[in-house]
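Bit of a strange request maybe. I'm writing a small parser for structure token strings and I need a real example to test against, not something I typed by hand. Could someone generate the tokens for this chain?
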Amino acid sequence: MRGLMHRLGRAHFSTRFSRMTAGVCGLVMLAITCTSWAADPPPETLITVKTPNGTLIQAELADTALKRAQGLMFREHLADDRGMLFIFGDAQPWTFWMKNTKIPLDIIWMDAKKTIIHIERNTPICTRQDDGCPQYHSEEGALYVLELGAGRAAALQLQRGVKLSFKQP
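Reply from user aminoacidic:
Good idea to test on real output. This should exercise your parser:
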């Protein structure tokens, strides 16, 4: 450190150190913000999904590649009235896995009319460190996928052919 201070001069070192400290503090604040958002997203990022029996689910919107890749990873809990709604640009048999997902989930695939075409119930967490976690997909093309806490699909009587309603942003 003395050698670095000597070569750069005290004033330059001090300025660089302050900038570096400010940058690290900024990254820490960003991480705290992202972590708190992951735990409780702002209300404007939630989509209300209504089931046929009138139950309302507040679903986080996963409408970008980054949000879809992150999904519900690292969450410790998901309330019964919460979920995550994945919206895709084209209908495909989208594949999901549970790597780094700490809570078991029900994964519900829907077509363009928001009709359920496939459900994977009670998908277990996967603690593997490699990429060997099981993969789940629909045989048919889906435009939407809804993730709920494990057991919620059964509790809400969701099954193939049931239509959900929500407004796409």
